[in-house]
Design goal:
Oligomer: single chain
Helix content: over 70%
Strand content: under 5%
Distance between the termini: 16 Å
Number of strands: 0
Structural class: mainly alpha
Number of helices: 10
Order of helices and strands: HHHHHHHHHH
């Protein structure tokens, strides 16, 4: 039993091994690169528009929060009151643009991203399994003819709903950190809560994303897909955490660097925004292929554990 467990540990893929296996898929079938480029093109166009609006919102938000209110006549009431006034002003300024972003995301970008995810995962699974060769023509017709759309849509809605609840919690903690910034104890308390919730968000993101992958490849949807994903990831939850943390850090680094450039220049140019979104689309494809590899690795580990249990039962019966 110990030898079997050590074999499983040796064969279990880590973060870098999963990324390496994901990059190999492109070299297994070079048509996959062209396929993902074309399927990501509509998403790319709308993300450029989305990013331009979002960057203006973030820049305006930063300028409002940066404004000093020491000269305000209400300063006698304390800094917390002034910060509440800043937040109220912030909501008045950015609310219309935030609503526009919400309609743009929920009405167009969400469905384009979902279709791109389904197509990428479905084709990448065939290439990675190596069961049969697939041409570029079959890659385009397969998502329309053979891939299920209902299951991934339901699972995606469940995942997005859970992610939204966590995001609201993070936003709430971030707001309290800003309001209580002059009180070290309360600020530290909310910082700790924010970091703890953010860590769980990153960990659960791997479960939610694998649930969508399961809905694409298997006849499971909604809570069943998420429960199956939770069960599979228990054997290697740490790898999923670092996998999502890596992509989260990459997206944050892109966001911060291009936002810094836009802050200094009053907003990024169309070319700079296009470069930013190109890197986002590339990392998005790599993320879903990595989740696919992670899914197959977790499934393999569960199969090994089941085999070990059966062998142990057989030995006990013989004794």
């Amino acid at each position: 039993m110990e030898n079997s467990s050590s074999t499983v540990m040796k064969e279990r893929l880590g973060f870098f091994e999963i990324i390496k296996e994901s990059l190999k898929i492109a070299f297994m079938n070079p048509s996959f690169i062209f396929f993902t480029f074309l399927t990501s093109l509509p998403l790319f166009c709308f993300l450029v528009l989305y990013e331009i609006i979002l960057q203006h919102i973030l820049i305006e938000t930063g300028k409002i929060l940066q404004q000093t209110s020491d000269l305000s006549p209400f300063s006698v009431f304390g800094g917390d009151y002034l910060r509440l006034m800043d937040i109220e002003k912030l909501f008045e300024v950015v609310s219309p643009k935030v609503l526009l972003l919400g309609f743009l995301y929920l009405g167009i970008i969400y469905f384009l991203d979902l279709f791109n995810t389904i197509a990428t995962v479905d084709v990448a699974s065939i290439i990675y399994a190596g069961e049969k060769s697939i041409s570029l023509k079959d890659m385009f017709f397969r998502p329309v003819k053979e891939t299920r759309l209902k299951g991934p849509l339901i699972t995606s809605i469940c995942s997005q709903s859970l992610a939204l609840l966590i995001s609201l919690g993070l936003l709430s903690f971030a707001t309290y950190i800003f309001i209580t910034s002059e009180d070290f104890f309360f600020m530290l308390l909310f910082v700790v809560l924010f970091i703890a919730l953010l860590g769980k968000y990153v960990e659960w993101s791997a479960v939610w994303n694998m649930g969508i992958v399961i809905s694409v490849l298997e006849e499971k949807q909604g809570d069943l897909a998420l429960l199956a994903s939770s069960y599979l990831t228990r054997c290697n939850r740490a790898c999923g955490f670092f996998l999502m943390l890596g992509f989260f850090a990459w997206r944050f680094a892109l966001r911060f660097s291009f936002l810094y450039e836009g802050w200094n220049n009053g907003g990024s140019s169309l070319v700079v925004t296009a470069v930013h979104i190109s890197l986002v689309c590339i990392s998005n494809v790599l993320k879903w292929v990595s989740i696919l590899v992670y899914f197959y690795d977790c499934k393999k580990q569960r199969a090994y554990e089941h085999t070990d249990v059966e062998e142990a039962k057989s030995r006990n019966d013989l004794q």
